[in-house]
Write a structure and sequence with these properties.
Length: about 190
């Protein structure tokens, strides 16, 4: 069974963006050391249109061959005219309002999200599935998430969009590793306790 991994950036107090979801306050902390780590360990989490100008478009996928993202995350790329932000992965967008995909490489999941993700997890393959935001999507898929990779930035926002937009429930994860960076960023990896 393939793993669903929620690879996410957040503040110390657990917010992935401001109340509208804007995470630009964290972007200034992506320095050379952190970027080198992402490039070496999670290169496929960098959008295709960002990889090309950096000259890293040829990096192979290390952990994921599929991405699932929410409509709000996808809209960020669409506003820039990018219809296939992760062209180097199989792309799925969860949306109840976007009825038709603007790109042949992007499949819209309009209903039974959990069922579709279970189908993707059941496929044969060595690489997993990258859950790329947002909050409501992560909340809806909490029961399917096998791994959390949380990049915690050394900022406190006080309010904003939480990592999981869901009602109260307890899901247990075991800490697998912690990596610290010179700029104060922590990358924590947790696996689901089943």
């Amino acid at each position: 069974m393939r793993k669903l991994t929620y690879f996410i950036a957040c503040s110390i107090d657990g917010f992935i963006g401001d109340p509208e979801g804007d995470a630009s306050a964290m972007m200034r902390l992506v320095d050379e050391e952190l970027f080198a780590f992402i490039k070496a360990e999670y290169p496929e989490t960098l959008p295709t249109h960002g990889r090309r100008p950096l000259g890293i478009d040829d990096l192979p996928n290390r952990r994921f061959d599929t991405v699932v993202q929410g409509r709000a995350s996808y809209d960020i790329a669409l506003k820039e005219g990018v219809t296939s932000p992760y062209a180097h992965l199989r792309e799925y967008v969860a949306s109840r309002t976007l009825k038709e995909s603007p790109d042949p490489n992007v499949e819209i999941i309009g209903d039974d999200l959990v069922g579709r993700v279970r189908e993707l997890k059941a496929e044969d393959g060595e690489l997993g599935i990258y859950l790329c935001g947002g909050s409501a999507l992560a909340g809806e898929l909490l029961g399917e998430i096998d791994e959390l990779v949380i990049k915690t930035y050394p900022i406190v926002q006080g309010a904003g969009m939480p990592m999981f937009g869901a009602g109260f429930s307890v899901a247990e994860f075991a800490l697998e590793s912690v990596r610290t960076f010179g700029n104060g960023v922590l990358v924590r990896t947790y696996s689901r306790e089943r």
